[in-house]
Amino acid sequence: MDVTTTQGAAATGGIMGFLAAMGIVFMICLIAYYVLMVIAYWKIFKKAGKAGWRSIIPFLNTYDIYEIAWSKKMAAINLVLFVVTIILNAINTNINNGILSVIIGILALALIVIGIIFCFKLSKAFGHGIGFGFGILFLSSIFYLILGFGKSEYIGNDDTNSPAV
Fold first, then answer.
1. DSSP letter assigned to residue 161
2. What is the pLDDT of residues 13-47, one digit of tens each?
3. Count of alpha carbons within 13 Å of 35, Cβ hemisphere only?
4. Could you give the CA distance from residue 48 to residue 55 in angstroms, rounded to a whole number?
5. In whole angstroms, what is the distance from residue 111 CA to residue 15 CA?
6. Residue 140: partners with Cβ closer than 8 Å, 6 or more residues away
7. What is the pTM of this model?
8. Which of 31, 49, 118, 160 has the most Cβ atoms closer than 10 angstroms to its Cβ?
9. Whole-number Å distance between alpha carbons of 12 and 119
10. Tell me: the pLDDT tens digits for 47-83?
11. What is the H or E stretch that residue 55 is in?
C-alpha cells in the first residue's frame, strides 16, 4: 500500500469526522433556537390573551401572531398566499412556465410586503414605535424575545383595538 493513499484516507476520515461533528453542533443550535422562539411566542401569546400552547403548532402560530398584530382576515390571507405560492412553485418546477414564474414572483413580493407591514403592526400592537418595528424586521428573534420577556403590554391591534381572545 502506498503511503500517499494511507495519508489521503486518514485525511478524508478526519474531514468527515469534523463535518459530522459540525453537523451535530448545528442541529443542537437549531433545536435550541427553535425552543427559544417557541418560548418567546408562548409569552407573546399569553400577553395577548391567547393560549400559549398554540405557539408550538407551526401554521397555527403564524395565524395567531398575524391575528394579534393585524386581523383574522390578514392572517388568513397571508397563509393562503403562502400555500398558493408553494403549490404554484411546485407545479412550475416541472413545467417551467414564464407566466407562472411571474405570478409566483408577484405573490412572493406581496408576501414580503405583508411581512414588512406585519412587523410594524406587531410593534404598534404592543405599544412600541417605528424603531421597534424596524427591530422586528431586521432582528426578529431578538425583538420577539424582548416582546415576550420584556415589559411590553398588548394594547390591541388596529382592527379590534382590544386584546384578541
1. S
2. 788 888 999 999 999 999 999 999 999 999 999 99
3. 6
4. 12
5. 41
6. 119
7. 0.81
8. 118
9. 46
10. 999 999 999 998 899 999 999 999 999 999 999 999 9
11. none
Dihedral angle, C-alpha 114, 116, 120, 122, nearest 10 °: 60
146 contacts 44 by C-beta, under 8 angstroms: no
What the block records as the C-alpha cell of 90 is 411546485
Element (H, E) at 50: none
* Size (the chain), residues: 165
Widest CA span in the chain: 78
> Grid coordinates standing for 157?
391591534
Helix boundaries (H) for 96-129: 98-125
Q: One-letter amino acid identity for 59? A: F
